[in-house]
Design brief:
single chain, alpha/beta, TIM Barrel, five-stranded parallel beta sheet, 11 helices, 28% helix, globular, binds N-carbamoyl-L-aspartate
Length: 420
Amino acid sequence: MTSYLLRGVSVVGAAPTDLLIRDGLISTEEGPAEVIDAAGLVALPGLVDLHTHLREPGREDAETVETGSRAAALGGYTAVFAMANTSPVADTAGVVEQVWRLGREAGLVDVQPIGAVTVGLAGKQLAELGAMATSAAGVRIFSDDGHCVADPRLMRRALEYVKAFDGIIAQHAEEPRLTEGAQMHEGEVSTRLGLTGWPAVAEEAIIARDVLLAEHVGSRLHVCHVSTAGSVEVLRQAKARGVRVTAEVTPHHLLLTDELAASYDPVYKVNPPLRTQSDVLALREALIEGVIDIVATDHAPHAVEDKECEWAYARPGMVGLETALPIVLSILGEQWDLIAERMSRAPARIAGLDGHGTDLAAGAPANLTLVDPSARRVVDPAELASRSRNTPYAGTTLPGRIVATFLRGEPTVLDGKAVK
Ligand SMILES: NC(=O)N[C@@H](CC(=O)O)C(=O)O
């Protein structure tokens, strides 16, 4: 196994030093090593994404575990959590083990499957949560993402069930009765365009209900892709009361607004929808404060025919793995410790993922990414490693280039290119 010496690297923004990677670990042991000139580069613990859609099994034309893993590595990730809305749905030990095994075979990031909460994501009957938890995949996070677990009794049962092994229910907060036929955020722009709106309260009402349920049960709730200022206030109050709730925000909800829907370009169609500028500002503040714990990509690759069509027929979702860190960097600036916390340490801690999100100190597994903060990149969809091209950032110049990523000491990305 090759050893690497990262010469003159800034570890999470600290003064330049040399970082040695040997036998898969951060090391202090002297000896031969390949030298990488890392002057001006910042090392972060490998990023961890709690919300990725890898589309395998079922829609391998949009993404596979391997192509999604490569996109993740190029984005600086060393672990991703794969959502359960595949076909078949990841609602059995068999499917989660398949995804887990495909991830190990690709060997580019650690792929941790998320199990469905309900059979077929249909919201009627609990899936085999225990069998998925005790499978080789060791599932700890369950989500019907794409659908809300809308039935309060089922949600309560799911929270009770996972409490036994300190599992988490990750909720896609959307009261379905309030979003029937919805095409975009409900507000001034939807009125102007004559499109059916997805009101903020459809998200806020479910989060309010679920924090009360989680409090009642004493179990762990994670809220997916928080998108409104009102949701932030519900979370703030729940956290102040000591409810065991964590929350994520996507890079696109930190940057883009519903005004973009006026272009009728379906690349901007996403669930939950892009909101208003005041929501964007509230989400940024909440992320800085910690009311929102983490950034998660909600990487949602879609095939051309599902995206390049009329707005009303287009599937919601954007690819995000390869642009997440540059977007966050453009918003937070070089607050490296905060970025490491929100994109690596906190997601690893929430998921209980060993070996990721740890300090880059001697003896720790060498899961890390090297960023050049001074580089700029124009996003070219044709250059993405993801099998899908539905990025809203085509032609946009973003700061920060991911130069290298190491998974347990092995480079998955070198010189900005995937190693395999
Ligand atoms: N986030 C998205 O816009 N899309 C998700 C599922 C969903 O939440 O609709 C997808 O799987 O494509």
